[in-house]
Amino acid sequence: MQKASISILGCGSALPTRKNFPTAQILEMRDKQFLIDCGEGTQIRMRQMGVKTNRLGHVFISHLHGDHCFGLIGLISSFGMLNRTADLHIHAQADLEILMQPQLNYFCADLPFKIIFHAINPRKNELIFEDRSVKVFSIPLKHRVPCCGFLFEEKPKDRHIIRSMIDFYKIPTWRIPKIKQGEDFETEEGEIVSNSLLTTECEPPKRFAYCSDTAYSEKIIPIIEGVDCLFHEATFMDDELVRAKNTQHSTARQAAEIAKKAKVKKLIIGHYSARYIHQNELLAEATAVFENTVLGEDLTEYEF
User: Fold this and answer.
1) Do 36 and 180 share a domain, yes or no?
2) 94-132 pLDDT, tens per residue?
């Protein structure tokens, strides 16, 4: 079974602390890497975690607040010094390209690879990336500036062949791809052999949802319903509910409410305000509502 995991490089909010760098995560799915947000210090955390970026081809930026994108130009510059040659695709609001192009022209004029920007509309839930094994959708969020989360979905895998049955029915090699996709087999005598006799089901496709930054919004529930893992911001505790509302952020309890109503399998909370030294208080508030909650921590990998 292929691993699906999220590595948190930083799960702090606007002000970095000794414990938490600004937001950045690496998603591993179907032998690919996706960088989600790129706060200041992202490349430092990558080095500290020993992250190899040879499979990193796509970066997804949720919104244009500095704690989610200030690390991008530094990362790109370092990729250039490391003689990266593969194209780097950046999925973000159109303004990011306008903001970054002068910096790229000034600091990264001789990159040995291409930077390709893909504009996304944060106000729409739509498909923004697709390859042969993964789809990515935008999730409109509720924040002070245009902001979206991301839903990563594996495409269904082919069924597993039962080799002994393939040999028993002398099925030619050229028929096997279609059988993996669910076709029955007809013998030369006209007998129909059910696909269920020839194959077994593969593991269900994995789904990961990233929702930061956002105020409490039940509009996202139909989009993320039933995901294997949800990362949802929990900037404040519930005694700061007024502050959360004014800054368009969520409390730990609210993150757990979303997870519970969306029937997700696992919740990771993060994007903590610098005021919280003892973050287990946030975890306790969330687990009181949704038991399978994990406290997101920098330099930590979570499988799902």
Assistant:
1) no
2) 999 999 999 999 999 999 999 999 999 999 999 999 999
- In this structure, the answer to whether residues 109 and 232 fall within a common structural domain is yes
Q: 87 and 109 in one domain?
A: yes
Assess whether 130 and 263 both reside in one domain. yes
**Residue 140 exposed, middle or buried by CB count within 10 Å (0-12, 13-18, 19+):** buried
Structure tokens at 154: 């594996």
Name the residue type at position 180: K
Active site residues: 67
Taking the whole predicted model, whether its pTM rises above 0.85 is answered as yes
Choose the final residue of a domain: 200, 222, 256.
200
Within this chain, do residues 101 and 244 fall inside the same structural domain, yes or no?
A: yes
Q: Is residue 233 a contact partner of residue 270, using CB atoms and an 8 Å limit?
A: yes
Per-residue b or e along 144-159, where b marks 16 or more CB atoms closer than 10 Å to that residue's CB: eebbbbbbbbbeebeb
Q: How far apart are CA 115 and CA 257, in angstroms?
A: 39
Residues 119, 221, 245: CA angle, nearest 5 degrees = 80
